Amino acid sequence: MTDRSAAPPAPTDSDALLVERAAAGDHRAYELLVIKYQRRIERLIGRMVRDVDLVPDIAQETFIRAWRALHQFRGDAQFYTWLYRIAHNRLADHWRAARHRPPAPGDADARTAAIVDPDLNTWRKLASFTSGHGEGWALYAERLMAELGWLEDAGNRMGMLDAQRFRAARVVLDIGVHCGMTAPDGGVWDAERAWTFLQTHSAMAEENLRFELDRYLGWPGQAPSYAIGQRIWQQLRDDSLARGVSLKDFHSRALDLGGLPLDVLRSALA
Asked: Are 30 and 67 in contact (CB under 8 A)?
């Protein structure tokens, strides 16, 4: 199965121009490349390591190594593909180092590995990722935090609601554009309408929002998978609680299974 998370955003001629300028010493040009790809690289790394504190460090090392090696980039592949390979090499370095150091108290990587090592192979632990399962869990966990009282601060709750508004807008955009739906005003869902819609329903910076638009125009079905996954996680949790399973036991049993398609997750927890 192809890892769709590694698929690059739609290539643009601007990448080649920015790389050329950056290789000539233009720091601002390289900053623009970092802005364009930083979140995607961090998401990639976040799916491969368990300790969230490591994500920005490995991402930073990735971009530093890419900067130092720009003279080696020949343009045979897209810039993101080249960047992805550097990130993967940095992850490999991290895994090799982790195998040779003793676990420290509170080490999230070591603690999680101790839980999953006996039952899951390397593919299931590090590379198997289904969007509806992983991203659905993230949205479920976000809502769980609110239910457990961790978002009582008005600013934190506002941030969660703003993120939910943006995700809902992405679902509308995805279905409207890729299913050829008619907009409420009778117009056609196209890139221009999608852009206006996102701007109206998001507080995100324009350069990040443009990246998100390109992402969802070129990745049909990924945005709705978040919402579907969240709903299934919630349903499975409610069904388990109704059978007398504790919340802690439900979470432990579900997460110990590793990355799974949603139908398989449902069957395993039945």
From this structure: yes
Hunting for tokens 């998401």 — which residue is that?
43
- At 182 the three-state DSSP class reads strand
pLDDT, tens only, 124-149: 666 677 888 988 998 999 888 888 88
Average pLDDT over residues 65-91: 87
Separation in Å, CA 118 to CA 115, 121, 125: 7, 8, 11
**Residue 240 to residue 198: CA distance in whole angstroms:** 37
Q: Is there a contact between 237 and 141 (Cβ–Cβ < 8 Å)? A: no
Domains, the chain: 4-117 (1.10.1740.10), 131-269 (no CATH)
- In order, the DSSP letters of 118-160 are TT--HIIIII---HHHHHHHHHHHHHHHHHTTTT-SHHHHHHH
270 vs 239: CA distance, rounded Å: 9
Question: Exposed/middle/buried for 98, CB within 10 Å: 0-12, 13-18, 19+?
Answer: middle
Mean predicted lDDT score pLDDT of the chain: 81
